[in-house]
């Protein structure tokens, strides 16, 4: 069940602050308040979906295409096209703490040698 008072819903409504990187009709990208990498941005759809499973099952096609385009544009704006990780924690057991679907975009110099 989607909780309309989750922190990302508040950011979408403008009821909570964020440092925005990119925004369009489908999605918003903003800085993670507690970064785990040199670059750590969150991309969220404007629609109310709890996780990637809910989003891919229930969001209309244009919302899904728009969201992934926003992910790509965010990555391009950050200039990390060839060096990033995209992570979507799904469920509390997997580390999800905010139940509005989001993709973590993380980039760090060391990723180049980690793999
Ligand atoms: P997850 O654990 O995958 O649900 O990720 C939630 C992420 O949201 C965490 O990495 C938090 O640091 C981040 N976060 C929580 N509140 C805020 C906020 N107000 N602004 C930006 N990032 C936040």
Q: In summary, what is this structure?
A:
Helix content is 31%, strand content 21%. It has 115 residues and is α+β, with helices and mostly antiparallel strands. A hairpin with a 7-residue loop joins strand 2 and strand 3.
Describe it:
With 115 residues, this protein is α+β, with helices and mostly antiparallel strands. It has helices spanning 7-13, 52-58, 61-78, 111-114; strands spanning 20-23, 27-31, 39-45, 85-87, 103-107. The protein has a five-stranded antiparallel beta sheet with strand order 1-2-3-5-4, with helices on one face. The longest helix is centred in the middle third of the chain and has 18 residues, at 61-78. It starts with 6 loop residues before the first helix and ends with a helix. Bound molecules: adenosine monophosphate (AMP). The site of adenosine monophosphate (AMP) has 12 residues, from loops.
Layout of secondary structure:
Layout: H1 7-13, E1 20-23, E2 27-31, E3 39-45, H2 52-58, H3 61-78, E4 85-87, E5 103-107, H4 111-114
Antiparallel strand pairs: 1-2, 2-3, 3-5, 4-5
Bound molecules: adenosine monophosphate.
Adenosine monophosphate binds next to loops.
List keywords for this structure.
5-stranded antiparallel sheet, binds adenosine monophosphate, 115 residues, 31% helix
């Amino acid at each position: 069940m989607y909780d309309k008072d989750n922190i990302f819903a508040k950011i979408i409504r403008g009821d909570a602050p964020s440092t925005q990187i990119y925004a369009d009709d489908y999605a918003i990208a903003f800085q993670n308040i507690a970064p785990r990498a040199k670059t750590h941005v969150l991309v969220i759809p404007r629609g109310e979906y709890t996780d990637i499973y809910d989003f891919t099952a229930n969001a209309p096609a244009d919302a899904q295409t728009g969201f992934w385009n926003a992910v790509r544009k965010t990555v391009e704006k950050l200039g990390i096209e060839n060096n990033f990780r995209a992570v979507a924690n799904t469920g509390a057991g997997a580390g999800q703490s905010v139940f509005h679907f989001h993709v973590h975009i993380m980039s760090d110099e060391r990723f180049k040698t980690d793999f």
